[in-house]
Amino acid sequence: MPATPPDPRPAVVPMRERLPALRPFTGWDDVAPDVLAAWDAPYGPDEQWDLRIEEHQAPGPNGPVPVRVYTPAATATAAAAARAPRPVLVWCHGGGFMHGDLDMPEADATSRGVAGRAGAVVVSVDYRLCDEPEALGGRRARRFPGTPEDLVIHAPVPLQDVLAAVRWTVAEADHLGIDPGRLALGGASAGGNLAAAATLSLAHEGRAPAASLLLYPVLHPLRLEPTAEEAAAVADLAAMLRFSLETTRSFTENYLGRPVSEAGIYDFPGLADTAQLAALPRTYLEADEHDDLRISARRFAEQLSEAGVEVEHVIREGVAHGHLNRIGLPEAAQTMDRLAEILGEL
């Protein structure tokens, strides 16, 4: 029997095994070029899905909100038009309320992957971003056309943009080929915060979405006390992968534009009480194993359970914060698999 020829492709190093190489460095600017290249190397090829992708604008109180709509291409055929309307996911990328756009993998690759897997429509929201604080460089966030010149972007502006995108999605249900009764609202990191806050706001108006899908979200204004297991999972992380007390306070104050003590439940839904949380729909909470923010997800899952909300809490093992931004990462595919399954159950 002939020998199997060797695979010419280099073995892909899992994220867990890439983490130690970053430990000697205190910031991304200090990382040696070869180490940075190895860290950023794709884990596999981009996924390919047959989708129709369209750019739209949702009217909002702060000016138009850009949204990108991902629709399985089969809906363009006459046969598909006769099918029942599809479920829809309104999706919010992360970036600390200061960074991110519709082209980052956490927005684009995730939207493609979920739409393709679920046969669902995904509406990705390009909400307005806050400027960076001076301590982080002071970079001014991009300004969308139609934004009032005097608008200072802090909470609740990004949340208002997300709510505007949800309203537009529902209003355009016939055009989009969706069932507004099968609408899920989701996001990652800071986008997970906005998705949770928008869900809470809609629930209190009596218009809750069918499900809330939150990936490594930040739901409390300051970092909570970790369990021994949670502390051990981040103890050896490089400094730039950590969310220290100082870092979370800086992000929170920059997002709020006011003291942390003035944060409300629609800024950080983890501040809501049991009665306020009881209005929430089915919630999926996924946290990354090597991530300080997993504490917030765990605590919010506990709060939801105490409020009688149906909640599923998952730890995605072997990955650090933001794993949906890693092209070809097997764990990212597993996450998209689960999101698609939930959309199929709505």
Automatic annotation (TrEMBL):
Superkingdom to which the source organism belongs: Bacteria
Keyword Hydrolase included in the entry's annotation: yes
A GO molecular function held by the record: hydrolase activity
Mitochondrion found in the keyword field: no
Gene3D superfamilies named in the record: alpha/beta hydrolase
UniProt xrefs under InterPro entries: AB_hydrolase_3, AB_hydrolase_fold, GDXG_lipolytic_enzyme
Domain (Alpha/beta hydrolase fold-3): residue spans on this chain: 89-130, 155-323
A Pfam short name: Abhydrolase_3
Alphabetized UniProt keyword annotations: Hydrolase
Name of the protein in its database record: Esterase/lipase
Organism field: Brachybacterium faecium (strain ATCC 43885 / DSM 4810 / JCM 11609 / LMG 19847 / NBRC 14762 / NCIMB 9860 / 6-10)
